[in-house]
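User: Sequence for DNA-binding transcriptional regulator, LysR family below. Tokens please.
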Amino acid sequence: MELVQLEYFVAVAMHQSFRRAADAIRVSQPALSRSIQKLEGDLGAPLFVRTAQGVRLTPYGEAFLPHARQALAEVATGVRKVSELAGQERGTLQVGLIYSLGTRFLPDIIRSFTRSHPGVTVRLSEAPTQKLLQQLDQGEIDIAFCTPQRAPHLNCVEILREELVAIVPPDHALAQRASCRLTDLAHEPFVAYARESGIRHVIEKYCAEAGFAPRVAMEGVEDLTVAGLVAAGVGVAVVPLNPQLTQLPVRALKLQESCTRSVYMVWHAHTPLSPVARAFISFVKRMCQP
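Assistant: Structure tokens for DNA-binding transcriptional regulator, LysR family:
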């Protein structure tokens, strides 16, 4: 049994999909499948069963998962201690991020950091805020970039503040206006972000302050999915101002309430950080804070 087999097994269990796991850990899906098959052969039991939605753990897989995670955590701790003794910033950094940061902002940060720290490999995984916070609590990632609710067990540093805008279909009654108030949307069907997305709570808070609760017609996870549903005429939405909005037939209207969404760099307050994680946090602070 090899360490990489455990890493692949935990990745598939976390993502509940061979394809998503392969994308997250940057290996080919056939190589991942072969590794899992070999692990199942070594153990003499099936670990996953395929479903219409992806895969789920068998009872054997559920029994094996906590031990696999513990083994990987022990190895990571050992590597971290050796790195600390050597005084070198080497190793792998697990970073989680909300979907909207995968195509803008964070790639430039990662590129600059790895250029100045060539001994570091950064592995990225994308998920909604609540999923990222769960991964943080379980030790599956070192640092998350998301929109969390404040909590005493989390260290949060604001690294980005984005303007929120209303978007409507091109044939909507508001489409010819440059701006609107949130109350102009009060009686409209909303395309909302999924509840596990931190931005959902930010938008609902602004709407509550304006005196209404959005009437949700449909939900999406990613910015472009939400915008695509608006373009299809499902409803209106409030989203971060993003240059990619110009790719879709929607009309963006400035909100007169000046609504914003803050994105934070988040890490666990009670978990010791590796030298690599400490270096990365310091680097991001220097890049993003005045």
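The mean pLDDT is 88.
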